[in-house]
Design a protein that fits this description.
single chain, 698 residues, mainly beta, 7-stranded antiparallel sheet, extended, B30.2/SPRY
Length: 698
Amino acid sequence: MTTYLIDPNKSKNSSLNAVVVDPLGLKVTITDNANHNSWCMANLPLPQDKVYWEAKVFSANGETGGYTTHLGIGTSNYINYISYYGDGGKLFPGSKTFGTAYKEGDLIGMAYDYFSNSITFYKNGLSQGTVSTGIPQDVPVYPIMGNYYPSSCEFNFGSSTFKYATPTGYRKLDEFQRLLIKNGDTYYTYNSSGEWETIQGAITEEIYLNQGIKDANIIRESDWKYFKTPIDLCYYSDNPNRDKVAFKIETEPYTLAREWEGKTVKVIEYTDSPTQTESIISTEVEPFILYDELGDNIDVLYYTDELTKTAASIEYNANYSPLDDIHNNFEVVTWTDESNNPPKLSLGALPVNQFIKQSNDFTLPGSLQAITIVKSVSNNAKFLLSFDSGQSWKAYRYGKWSYVDVDNINAISKQAMSYKEISKLVESNFKNQGDKVRFGYYIEDKKQESLNPTKIDATQLVIKSNVDDTKFQNLSFYVLNTEATIQLTFNSGKILGQINDEDKGKVQYRVLLNDLPYFPNDGSFTRLAPSPVDINLNISERDMHFDKDNKLRVEFKDYWGKTDYWETTFAGTYTGLMFMDESGEYLSDTFGGILKYLDFGMIFAGQTTVDQKVVIKNQLGYSIDNLLLEVNKDKLPKGVTVELSRAQSPFLATDYITYGLTKPLETQEFYVRIVADIEAKPVPNGIFELKINSNKAV
């Protein structure tokens, strides 16, 4: 059930905790007074519909307040956006004159039209104008707010009555929604005490409004078990245009083996083929041996139609000894009268089912991504993991970690993970399990099998952590404490260097990017490690700012807590083969995101547009050759052609261009224009794509 709120986890701000959201998720306060640009957005993208919401502008701390507030919509990475700016009345990006200025106390309305890809802004109920969003229609967009100074806004997505009327043809963003549960002929609601409550009488709109369930997420998982027979989810909405609704229902995962355990299964097949006389059904089950199924005593019945056969023989092989039938401790007593020849006893045995616990932990210097079990023989080993130094043991089954009673060998046998299951676990499965792990091995060697011992060649842990972060040397104790020192360089997105302490004490560090934690990502310091500690860390371009300087800060301290830091600023630069317009502005980023479009304006059928200059810049860091530029024809509407040319005059039209050797930071230029056939059909907000490929120069 849709509920729009401001999500503090999606904020973009230049200082820690600069965006504060109230418990209801509707009022936002920006506390940053350092002239940074702080942003926040809603938890859900806007629907493919015509929707309206409002935001009331407040001031905070008696400062500039609403004058510098941005309100509008944007993509999840804040790269593409459009906003109505309060200072003088402007439209961003581009600082274009738009509407009138707004300030504290004003109420800004926003009406988004997905179908025309436009947004209309209102100030105190009066339209300030309608503009195209400039954002591709297939890219999700969110309600956003931003400010350079302390301020606050309170959003109303429709959960309460709007101050001004909703524009004609639009609906409020947050629908009024309620839910009732129908079981048989009885309707139920879920009350504030966490109990099911029967609805009496006829079901009316008033019943939904006053007694309906506002949020199905509040219903505890165990409470759904109250219903033993199928139920209907009865949904109410005040949106007159809604004709369908989707529910996400999570059930406890299950397997056929779990459903059919202890049951006899019959498979019935139907076919209309008159020639088919038999069917083949393949099933996959856990490994077993006949002894487990048949027990100690079996009768073998033999039939033959050979008249001369008068007797039959059976040959069987088994690894068995009468000693297997002795379940308690026993003594072997021997006697001999040969005093010079003492008896020798050789006893061979297989181990009973057992659970072996690792006596120490593996300490994880980073997030655990995978566990790989390398084995050469036998499938009889299974595994449990402990994340609390052996106090409890867990297995990952049916999408969650479950505790296993290790005092019950049968429980271990059924619930422990096979080597295939444990090898399928990924980083997200280990989240919030701690910074250490211990292995438990369940071994099940059966006496009826040939002597094939359980053997594990290796257990490998894949951990995401800093590269070569410590060097261990012989330790000595010094009474004198000296402050740790740091020598770092930052180049091409990589920090290289070393932290040292002359008294050979332990040191630790953390890295902040634009005042936000970067490594470790929770803002804590690394573990204390003997100096010197090497730092070899890549800074991801996804975390950099490209519109202003970035601040990189490495804080470090020694065992005694003395803290110092190293800091630098750098400009974020894209890497790759980058497209730029004639003014040098980038058209796309490293990751393929659109920064700016070549705008050809409105094109009429039968028209050829004016050509525009585009520049390709080699920012790969090495020379390239055989560069091929071509038009992606699959994305072009019927009757529309995109033409390329190396030169503007004369414009020699082609659909691809090749270039030779291009050195680092060297540029190549070309021109592009659009030709529309006289019979070309209208396409609103049409786009085209160019593809580029190259080889690294040898």
